[in-house]
Design goal:
alpha+beta, Porin, two-stranded antiparallel ribbon, 10 strands, 20% helix
């Protein structure tokens, strides 16, 4: 009797396993596949109140379908000291980073980035928060499978800072940056898959 019960239980589990449907998720509904993870430092030049200064930061995130990137990043602008007798002004910001790199498997390829987040301005013991939207366009070079170098330029739009010397107009401006990208990417891009499918059809 015990042997019969065990046999029926195994048979029932097998039937349920065969007919079970895979749980629906956002990834399999949209055909998004995690294909890599990347991150690294950034260093650039921007303007503050008409003067050139540096901006340094970093980022990290996940790659989807060999072309899309979703992650988090931020930077700090090296602001000049407005008065030697008071504290040095400071502005740093961070937020969601969205990226698109078509034909990322090629040696040199374009890259489009968008950062949307918040920033904090500090000056003479006071602070204020602001919204930051920063689109950029550039290119990348695949140096090694785990290392890429990129250069991009764009505009940083700041809204919400009312501190003297750190107004939206002072903090907003064009920028250019160099990006070091460390990580790894696996699998084939959809472009390669489609090409292989057509090659098999022609054969």
């Amino acid at each position: 009797m015990k042997q019969l019960t065990f046999t029926l239980l195994i048979t029932l589990i097998s039937i349920l396993s065969i007919h079970a449907q895979r749980d629906e998720t956002i990834l399999n509904k949209t055909n998004l596949r995690i294909t890599g993870a990347w991150g690294g430092p950034t260093l650039g030049i921007t303007s503050y109140d008409g003067e050139s200064t540096t901006v340094a930061g970093g980022y990290g995130g996940i790659e989807f379908n060999k072309e899309y990137f979703v992650g988090w990043g931020g930077a700090t602008i090296d602001l000049p000291n407005l008065d030697a007798n008071i504290l040095k002004p400071d502005f740093d910001y961070n937020g969601l980073v969205l990226g698109y790199a078509p034909a990322a498997h090629r040696l040199i390829h374009p890259n489009f980035l968008l950062l949307v987040g918040t920033g904090k301005a500090q000056f003479n013991g006071l602070d204020d928060k602001a919204w930051v939207v920063q689109p950029a366009i550039g290119g990348e070079v695949n140096v090694l499978r785990w290392f890429r170098i990129g250069a991009s330029g764009g505009y940083r739009y700041v809204n919400g800072s009312d501190l003297i010397g750190l107004s939206d107009e002072n903090l907003s401006g064009f920028f250019g940056e160099i990006k070091l990208k460390f990580g790894f990417s696996w699998g084939k891009s959809d472009r390669y898959k489609n090409r292989d499918k057509y090659d098999d059809t022609d054969a």
